[in-house]
Write a structure and sequence with these properties.
Two copies of one chain form a homodimer.
Chain A: H1 2-21, E1 24-25, H2 26-33, H3 37-49, E2 53-56, E3 70-73, E4 78-85, E5 89-96, E6 100-108, H4 116-132, E7 139-147, E8 150-152, E9 157-161, E10 166-169, H5 171-178, E11 187-189, H6 190-201, E12 210-215, E13 219-225, E14 228-229, H7 261-265, H8 267-273, H9 283-294, H10 298-322, E15 326-331, H11 333-351, H12 354-357, E16 361-364, H13 371-386
Helix pairs in contact in A: 1-3, 2-3, 4-5, 6-13, 8-10, 9-10, 10-11
């Protein structure tokens, strides 16, 4: 029994290494897992027989001697369905083992809000379509979703989705029901999932303490502390967008408060600062400001500097609090940050205690807008990775 | 070997339970540790023979049946030396197993600063005195120190001690040297240690996610995330006093920035707000304001409200970021908080997302000014608790 438990854990760990790295030699697996090569070979054979990995001769390593076989995930044959409810779009994707997006469907979403039924209907339709067009031998091993709001862990209940006006909407349960699953789809906050994805596969690789700021209309956050996502007592931590940085003179925020970080650096703040019309909105409008600033337009540059100053106040506070190794700017902040970096750096130099900023790096997201989707996929893969041979029960029946 | 390792871990866990709880029945130990009662008895016998615990018949439990023996720490016989360098005082104490302060020495410290030599001389003198007057059969098992600044983990180097003007001063090494020890005294930041003490023995007992604000001249912080102190990449996290809450109109801060939480709610801010003379300072002056406010003095009350508003901005930000179960006000904030609580609560209601504040509690410190000293003692006990029978080598030779 103990033996069986150890074997299961080893299989899971090996599969996780292959899933996260994409391609690992047997020798590297033996070293990282502290197991001998014959054990690695036996574990790999089991995973191969289950259709989860395959072994290949490595491409020329330039070294003499017999090369170690390379283990790769069966990306095309083992996948999850990942869903992303963002402010401006609904996305569904088929994401293969190894975290590769194989196929996707995208729908624009009106800002005016949408009811649960309509959102779930669109996503479930996409999901069935993606599942139905997958190769016949491919297996769906899980489902996961990202949502731009506060999510109750466990059942995917949206406690608060400000831009849609959702309060206590059973999103995970409804999506699961509509997909014909026996239980709720696991759901995570978009910035939490983006942070995990960036740490596992993106700019945060190798960092144990990391701040991820996710710009959408507002600003969400995912904070990694000691290698783990900061969740707090109820799973509602990391709301850095509602850190008040300008309490007495701040712009009103969608949350009902005033001077929140997202009110000062969000989409509306930037467009207003750049003097754009009040009825303009969306990612394209925002990118236009960034492009104009790049061309030297003074109002656009000034707008980015103003946003950068507030962003710097917020980031400096976070560095004082978390002493992170890296701060990552994702979502729309990936576009905004380069033109605002000088102001951010100045604020950090002025406001952060020298000892706490000695080694911090500032980077833009490596995964871009896919970070949330890749993070959602990770929710779908979690059962398979916990028990690779017990878990390969199709999450959805074959689509045809 | 594995057996020996398990035994050592069980001994350490049992001693830790007794150390933290003060008095635990064998039955409760068996239940909490998941071991049978004969194993608990054997472990307890070993710890008793080593002079670390003793067993007693419980006081009348009011229940029928044979009562379970109660295990207590040998508080008088097993102690550490704990040191505390605060802004206004230097303290040393003999702290017995179980976290009980047995004896202490205290010296006022001038605000003007003090050099390393002088501070270490006073503390080492106190330490020798406390050690020398301990009962002849008592054993000193460790040493630990608290310091009001940023400390490098491992060697007790003070990286930044703003009120003394210390930068990179080898406090831990010098104190160890002066006490005749072979290695540096482990040192922690005062608010970090206070947080750990409050979580283990104070208002934070049972909370896994906790914010501790420690008011001295400024405001330090200790943040517990998932049961562990938030340390960050270098051990310099939790600097919530330097979270900027008033970036453009703020008071200058000792760190060189402006509008930091500690600049808006620290001792000077409160005394200024209450219209006290600029040359007045210290805990007594501050308590006078609190007392006057209690008597209905309008200027003093208004000062507390003003500080409470800024304190609320800071605490609201922390709740949005950490979704903690409890926020604890310690150090001088223990005195200030009751007269400022309404403003703090109003800010939390206005600035924190409802979902994140559903269950948070606000409390004052249970250990008061002893929190840092008790936390420093914990550093001294850590080796004994890790290996109770291997670790009982006197940290200091007998004093006589």
């Amino acid at each position: 029994m103990l033996q069986e438990e150890i074997r299961r854990r080893n299989l899971g760990n090996l599969l996780r290494h292959v899933h996260l790295d994409g391609s690992v030699s047997r020798a590297a697996l033996a070293e990282r897992m502290g197991l001998n090569r014959s054990t690695i070979m036996a574990l790999t054979l089991e995973l191969t027989a289950a259709g989860l990995v395959r072994e290949e001769a490595p491409t020329d390593t330039g070294r003499t001697g017999r090369p170690s076989l390379v283990v790769r995930p069966e990306t095309a044959g083992v996948y999850v369905l990942a869903f992303d409810v963002a402010v401006d779009w609904l996305t569904a994707a088929r994401v293969g083992l190894g975290g590769v997006i194989l196929d996707r469907r995208l729908a624009a979403r009106p800002r005016a809000g949408a009811d649960l039924d309509r959102v779930v209907e669109v996503l479930a339709g996409f999901g069935r379509e993606l599942h139905g067009t997958a190769p016949p031998e491919a297996v769906c091993v899980g489902v996961g979703a990202s949502y731009c709001g506060m999510i109750r862990p466990g059942d995917g209940m949206v406690r608060f989705g400000p831009d849609m006006g959702w309060v206590d909407q059973a999103f995970g349960a409804e999506l699961g029901h509509r997909l014909g699953l026996a239980r709720p789809v696991p759901v995570g906050n978009e910035a939490h999932l983006g942070a995990v994805a960036e740490q596992q596969r993106g700019a945060g690789l190798g960092f144990q303490n990391m701040i991820y700021l996710h710009g959408d209309v507002g600003v969400g956050g995912g904070i990694i502390v000691g290698g783990k996502l900061l969740d707090g007592d109820g799973g509602y931590a990391c709301e850095l967008g509602h850190m008040v940085v300008n309490p007495h003179h701040g712009r009103p925020c969608g949350c009902g408060s005033r001077g929140c970080l997202e009110a000062e650096v969000g989409e509306r703040a930037l467009l207003d600062a750049a003097g754009r019309p009040a009825d303009l909105f969306g990612r394209d409008a925002l990118r236009d400001v960034v492009t104009d600033a790049g061309r030297g337009d003074p109002a656009a540059r000034e707008a980015l500097h103003r946003i950068g100053d507030w962003l710097g106040v917020g980031v400096a506070n976070l560095i004082n609090l978390f002493n992170p190794g890296i701060v990552i700017f994702g979502g729309m902040l990936r576009d905004v940050y380069p033109g605002a970096a000088d102001q951010v750096r100045t604020r950090i130099a002025d406001n952060v205690l020298p000892v706490a900023r000695e080694r911090v790096r500032l980077r833009t997201s490596a995964l871009g807008d896919d970070a949330t989707l890749v993070g959602a996929a990770e929710l779908g893969f979690s059962e398979l990775l916990a028990d690779p041979l017990g878990g390969v029960v199709p999450a959805l029946p074959p689509g045809r």
